[in-house]
Amino acid sequence: FPSHDTNEGSNPTSVLHFTWNTHKNTENGGGAYIRNADPKGNQHITLSNFTMDGAGSGLPRSPNSMNPDGLPPGIRFDHVDDFTISNLEIRKVPGISILYLNGTHGILTHNFIHHSGRDGINGGWADDGSHHMTVSHNLIQNIGDDGIAVNGGSQGLSNTTGNLPSDFLIENNTIQGWEENPNGLQIGRGIFINSAENIEVKSNTITHSADSGILITHSQPSSYNPTTKKPWRPKNITVTSNSIQNAGKMAYRDWE
C-alpha cells in the first residue's frame, strides 16, 4: 500500500483470502500478505473493517528453527508513520499477524486476532525501533507465540546502535492463550517487553499464556551497547491494573 491510502471493507464479512504459507517459496506468493509499498518509508496508511483469512493451520508454528522456509506475516509495515489498523479480524496467519518495524505514531485497536502461528502484534526493531504507538482494545486468542511484543533486542536481532522502541501505550487488551498445548509447539508470553523505553502496560487481561503473563527483559547477547559491552536494558516501564491467570503452564523451552 502506498502513502495516504485508506483500505476499508464495507463490513467484517469483507474477506481477503491468502493462499501461501511459507516465506521463501515464490510459487506460493512469498512474503507478507499485506505490506507497505516502499520499505524505506510511507505515511498515513489506514486498514479497517475487513477480515484477513490466511493459509495457516491455525496451530502454533514455533520455534523458528522448525520453520526453515520462514513464515509470512499477515501485515508488515516497515518505516510507516501515522498509521491505523483497526476493526480487523485476522485469522490463521502462518507467522506474526501484525508486524510493524521502525514506524512512528501508530494506532492498533479493536482487532480480533486468532489462530496465528506466531505472535499476535509485534513492534519489532530493524535499524530503528518504533515510537509513539498505541495498542489497545484488541482481542487476541489461541496464537503460537507472544500476544503483544515490543522488541528491541531479542534472539535473532543484532542491535548495536540503540534506537530502542519507545513511548508505547498497551492498554485494555484481552489475550487468551490455549488452555492446552494443541501440538506441543506453543510458546510465548502474554505481553513481552524487550529492551524498550517509556512503556505503559495497563488494564490488560491475560489468561493461559504459555510462558510469563508479562515479561520485561534486557536484550540477548547479539544486541548490546558497543560502548559498555552490556545488554540494552528496558527503562521507565509502568505496569498497572493488569489481570493475569494461569500463566506459564506449557512453554516449549527450546525457543526462539
Note down, in words, how this protein is organized.
The chain is mainly beta and 256 residues long. 0% of the residues lie in helices and 38% in strands. The protein has strands at 5-8, 15-17, 34-35, 42-48, 51-53, 75-78, 80-86, 89-91, 98-101, 104-109, 112-114, 121-124, 131-136, 139-141, 148-151, 166-171, 174-176, 191-194, 197-202, 205-207, 214-217, 235-240, 243-245. Strands 1-4-7-10-13-16-19-22 form an eight-stranded parallel sheet, with no helix packed on it. The protein starts with a strand and ends in an 11-residue tail after the last strand. 45% of the residues are buried.
**What is the average of the pLDDT values?**
90
Instruction: Give the % helix.
Output: under 10%
Low-confidence stretches: none
Tell me the strand percentage band: 35-45%
CA-atom Rg in angstroms: 17 Å
List the main descriptive attributes of the protein structure presented here:
256 residues, mainly beta, eight-stranded parallel beta sheet, 23 strands, 0% helix, globular
What can be said about this structure in brief?
0% of the residues lie in helices and 38% in strands. It contains no helices and 23 strands. It has strands spanning 5-8, 15-17, 34-35, 42-48, 51-53, 75-78, 80-86, 89-91, 98-101, 104-109, 112-114, 121-124, 131-136, 139-141, 148-151, 166-171, 174-176, 191-194, 197-202, 205-207, 214-217, 235-240, 243-245.
